[in-house]
Each structure stands twice: as C-alpha cells, then as structure tokens.
Write a structure and sequence with these properties.
6 strands, mainly alpha, six-stranded mixed beta sheet, elongated
C-alpha cells in the first residue's frame, strides 16, 4: 500500500501515535528528505486532523518546495481548530511571497476564516479574485461568499449572489436564511423561503434548512405556510430529527397553535432538554403558564435534566400566574446546582420576583449579579415603572449611563413610563427628541404611547390629542385607550366621547373600550348614554371578561370571583369583608357607587360593591397570614374605584402593606396611600 494511502487512513482514524511511527520510518529511510511534496502534504494533513498543529507547522515551514495543496492542508488544520486569523495570514503569504493562487478548495477556507474574523475587506478581495478567476461558479466558493456577507451583515451582497446564480444548493439558502433571520429582515427571508419552496426539491433540505424555514414561519406567524412545510417534511421523514422537531414546536408556539404544538411534541419518539424547553417556551408564550409548570413535572419524571433556558422559561411562567411558592422553589434549585450566576436565569429571577410583587427582592437580585446585560438593566427599569416607582426607575437608568451601558429601544419605554409617573413632561420629551436620537434609536409606537400617557397624567389632554394627530404613525388601540383613561380620570367627558368614538371605529368589539365608556358616562351621570353603551355591547355580543382575583397562601392559590360563595370558607370571608367595611367607614370610607346602575337602590349598589373579587381575596389573606406579613393579590382586570378606595383604608386600619397587581400595574397600599397616587 502506498504511504499516502496509509497516512490518509490514519488521518481519518485520528491515529496520531501510529502516524508518528510512519513519519519516523520515512525520516530513517531518507524518504522524507527528498522533495516528495505529496507525502509531506499527507503528513501535514495527518498532524492537523489529530490536533498537533505545532508539528504540522514545523514540517510545513521546513518544506523547500510547497504547492497549493501544502498551503491548503495547513490552512485546513488551522480552520478546523479555530485559528482563523492564521488562515488569512497564510493566504496573504502564499499569494504575495510564493506567488501561488488559491484554488476552489483553498478559497472557501479563506472566505470562511474572513467570515469568522469579521475581515470584510479581505473577504471582498477574495470575492474579486473569484470573479476574475472564474471560481465564483464553483458552489463551495459561492456558499462561502454568501456566508461571508451574511456574517458581516451585508445581506444585499448575499442576496445578489443568490439571485445571480442559475442554481443554488441548499447550503447557500441556509446561509442566506440564517443571516436574514439574525438581522431580523423577515420580509426578505420570506421571499427567499418562497424561492426555496418553489424549486420543489424538499428532498434536498437538511436539518439546518428546516430550522431556518420554521424560524421564518414562526417569526411571521404564518401558520398556513408553516403547516405546508410541516406536511412536506412528514413525507420525506425529516420530522423525526430532534432539532427539526424542536423547530416545529417553536413554530407552532409562535403561531399560537398550542394543540398542534403538543401533538408534535407527543409524536416525537426521542426527546432531549431542547425539545422539552421548546415546548415549555411555547406554552409560556401563549400564556398557558399552568400547563408549562405541569409539563415540567413530567420532564422530571422522565429524568431529563433541565438547562438554564428551561429554568428561565419556568420562572417566567411562575411570573405569569404569580406563583411565588413555585418560583421560590425554582430559585432554591438553581442556586443549589450553580445556575443562579447565569445571566439568563438571573434575569428571569428578577422578572419573577417583580411580577410576584417583590420589587425589593428583584432589586437585591439585580445588585448581586456578577454581570448585567442590557436586558438586566431594562428589566429593573421597567419593573420599577410597573410598580409605580418612577424615581427608582430613573435612578437605575442614570446608573446604567454611568456604567457606560448602551440603552436600547426597551430601555426608553421604561424611562418614559417613569417620567409619566413623576409628571416630568419636559424630561420625557428630552429623552424622546434628543437622547434617543443620540443613542441611534428611532422612537416607535411604544415610546409615543408613553408620551400620550405622560401628557394625560399631567392633565394636558388637548396636547395629548394633538400629539396623536400630529404624528403620522399607525396608532393602535392602546394609545387611544390611554388617552381615554386620562379623560376618565380628569373628567374631560367631551374629549373622552370623541376618543371613544375613534376607538370603536378602530376596534368595534373591544370590551375594554366599552367598559371605559360606560364608566365615563356613569361618572357624568349620563345614564341614557350608559344604557346606549350596554345596548351596543348586547347587540355586538361583546362580553365583559369576568373579574378574577387570587392570592397565594402557603403555596396554595385561592381564586375569587365577585360575590363568590363557592370557597369552602365563603361565609367567614364575607363576614370578614362586612366587618372591614364597617370599620373603615369610621376612617372616612364612602362606597363609590357612581358607576353602578342608576335604577337600583343605593343599598343594593353598596352590597354589589362589597363583595368584589379583590375585597374577598384581601379579606381571606388577612384571615390567613401573620399580622405583619404583606398581602399580595393579583387581578385580571383594572381595579375598580371603590375597591381601590377601600383598600387604601384597609391598609391604614390593619397597618398592613397590601400589594395588588391589576391588568395595568402594581398598586402598593401603605398607611392609607397608594403608589399610583390615584391615577391608574
């Protein structure tokens, strides 16, 4: 057998020990000293494949005569082991000193190295050489060029290469799709995806293609296309691949198709932590938080070890349902296994603590982080704003600037919300018009909506309306509803009527708008208008979402609805509510019956108000918790005026901190005051 065939076999087997014996034999028999380039190239390849780059380089440097294969073998070794900069330097030396030109095998290696190093200029020089030499028509070269431009964010060049070729292989499409997804260019990604599908050659797809394709469908929430692609994969059998299965689950989750997602998950014969985490994420994204927590129990029974992303998703699910007990157990577990220092887990812990009402704990976690990324800072700023603590939010933002952290789009949403809480109109406009521009951030709908809220809170309602009308962006329901809420709070019913009419045009069946309209008319004692709104709701079959409140007592969640009598202790709870309301009357509490139906006796109105779900939850928590423990209640709707007023008095009467999370924000009640300063 020829020596080079033996060396090739040893390279494939990565048998360095026997390879060195062969090398020694060649030296002893004086075969290596001759100008036999082929054997030396084979030895360089052997050492490179086995990771002994120093021996490969010594042999390479001692060669009196080297050809392109010699250089390519050395470059291949460096590239395989991540020394990409050395590949580029070798190529420069080969061309300038040795006067050798890269071939169709060497040039892709150099281009890949340029991609990984971010050497765009050198890569473009290689592109020019490929055009001049005709190597551009070789598929490996073309794929490497596409990869270069996608990695260097020059997607137009990547698309030009794709479009200019009569036929591209699957690697080209993979590189382009991956780059477009990384850059967030979903429109162009969709066009490339259509090109790929129209070629009608799904049998050429590999796992990477499927992951990219489902990524596009998921981000665009294109369920129809996603189902078509899934159907094709079922025919060619790629759906059995673990990573493809995880990508399919992710796609269905992003498209909101939870049942299809679960079918895919259940149909997978093999599952790993990625598959389980993708399914947990899909549940969490679709606010199926309890299902996510239940699935985690199944994951434990299957002895699948969760990773940091699994815990992050679970902590977010705990935040969604304010499952503080479950969240604390997860906190203890990640601390035990050493994952608490992971930044993804750390951020999730901050979010969970904040959403469960523990803003002080969230800040302690934030301060204890060894490393904080922009998400960490954004979380702390937005969490403080959500809790009504505007000054604290701005303090964190200033600290962020002191530490020279670059603010992001989300950062300024939290900052502008904080300005709104504090009524700092001029400061808010400074951040919007100057600081965001300086940071290279284009203001978006969320920022403009914060400005509407800022002006509304400052009683500058006409300015808020003019701000909306003078900015030619596509305003959504949230922005107009923010203005409507300001009209309700400040009793500007004329403007409120105009805003409500606009809202009903934008979203005719929005129950939130109808409820705000009804309350606004009720406060103005326009009972005929109240009747009109309620008639409109009946005609359009607009259902008001039932109000729910829940509180967690010793890791058990107790859920209440208005006038609830299904709880096992409902009699005692109602007695507690009755006693509390009687006692706070002596402190000045007066039931806020304005928004109740006008054709009902006042005594009946008060009775209805007495047993709203949040009052029942607060009463039960007072019955079951120690006298000095804070009370935490969560609600799925906006807290009503009467419950808000009553809770302020209850906090004063009982000397307890009562934290209520409604659909808009957190309310911290202490000593008869609320953190929202009666604006919510």
């Amino acid at each position: 057998m020829e020596i080079r065939k033996i060396l090739k076999a040893l390279s494939e087997a990565k048998n360095l020990k026997f390879g060195k014996i062969i090398h020694a034999h060649l030296v002893i028999t004086n075969q290596i000293s001759r100008n036999r380039v082929i054997e030396k190239n084979s030895l360089i390849h052997l050492y490179s494949k086995c990771g002994d780059l120093s021996s490969a380089r010594i042999l390479f440097d001692k060669m009196r005569k080297r050809n392109v294969v010699s250089w390519g073998s050395m470059m291949s070794g460096y590239l395989q082991h991540g020394y990409t900069q050395e590949v580029v330097e070798l190529c420069k030396h080969m061309v300038k000193v040795e006067k050798l030109s890269p071939n169709k095998y060497v040039l892709p290696m150099v281009l890949s190295s340029c991609s990984n190093c971010g050497f765009l200029d050198e890569g473009q020089q290689c592109h020019g050489y490929a055009l001049k030499s005709g190597l551009i028509f070789h598929q490996y070269v073309k794929n490497a060029l596409v990869y270069l431009y996608t990695m260097c964010s020059h997607l137009n060049c990547a698309m030009w290469i794709l479009d200019s070729s009569p036929r591209s292989d699957i690697c080209t499409y993979n590189s382009v799709l991956n780059g477009l997804l990384a850059q967030g260019d979903l429109t162009e990604a969709w066009c490339v995806l259509r090109m790929l599908i129209e070629e009608e050659e799904c049998d050429r797809w590999d796992g990477v293609t499927c992951v990219n394709v489902f990524g596009v469908c998921g981000h665009l929430k294109d369920l129809i296309l996603g189902r078509q692609v899934h159907g094709r994969l079922l025919k060619i059998g790629l759906d059995r691949d673990l990573f493809v299965g995880s990508a399919t689950i992710d796609m269905y989750g992003k498209c909101g198709e939870v049942s299809s997602m679960r079918k895919v998950f259940d149909g997978l014969k093999a599952k790993n932590e990625v598959t389980w985490t993708a399914t947990l994420t899909a549940y969490s994204q679709n606010e199926c938080f309890e299902e996510a927590l239940k699935l985690f129990l199944e994951m434990g029974r299957e002895n699948v070890v969760p990773n940091e992303y699994t815990f992050a998703v679970l902590l977010n699910s705990c935040a969604g349902v304010s499952a503080l007990g479950y969240g604390n157990s997860l906190h203890a577990r990640v601390e035990k296994i050493g994952l608490k220092s992971d930044i993804v887990v750390g951020n999730a812990l901050i979010y969970m603590s904040s959403k469960c009402g523990l803003i002080e704990d969230a800040h302690i976690l934030f301060r204890s982080m060894l490393y904080r990324d922009v998400i960490s800072w954004n979380l702390m700023i937005t969490c403080y704003s959500y809790h009504g603590l505007g000054m604290e939010a701005l303090d964190v933002f200033q600290q962020m600037l002191i530490e020279r952290k670059q603010p992001s789009y989300v950062t300024f949403v939290g900052v502008l919300s904080a300005c709104g809480l504090l009524g700092r109109v001029d400061e808010g406009f400074y951040y919007l018009n100057h600081m965001m521009r300086e940071c290279g951030i284009e203001p978006g709908l969320e920022h403009y909506t914060c400005i509407v809220g800022l002006l509304g809170r400052a009683r500058r309602l006409d300015e808020a309306e003019n701000f909306i009308r003078s900015n030619p962006i596509r305003w959504d329901v949230i922005a107009w509803r923010t203005l409507l809420n300001a009209c309700l709070v400040h009793q500007n019913y004329g403007l409120g009527k105009k805003v409500a009419d606009i809202l009903l045009q934008i979203s005719p069946n929005d129950s939130g708008t109808c409820i705000l309209m009804s309350n606004m008319h009720a406060k103005a004692k326009r009972w005929d208008k109240v009747s009109e709104v309620r008639k409109l709701m009946r005609e359009r079959n607009i259902k008001k979402e039932p109000g729910l409140s829940w509180t967690e007592i010793r890791n058990d969640t107790h859920v209440f609805v208005a006038d609830d009598n299904k709880h096992v202790e409902s009699v005692q709870i109602r007695e507690k509510v009755k006693k509390l309301l009687a006692e706070i009357r002596t402190l000045g509490y007066v039931p806020y019956i304005v928004t109740e139906l006008h054709d009902v006796e006042e005594e009946q109105k008060e009775d209805w108000l007495s047993y709203h779900s949040e009052k029942l939850a607060i009463a039960y928590a007072l019955m079951k918790t120690p006298p000095d423990a804070p009370i935490r209640v969560m609600k799925n709707l906006r807290m009503c005026d009467d419950c808000h007023s009553a809770t302020k008095y209850i906090s004063k009467l009982t000397n307890r901190t009562i934290i209520v999370r409604d659909v808009n924000r957190f309310h911290h009640f202490r000593d008869g005051f609320c953190s929202c300063t009666d604006y919510w």
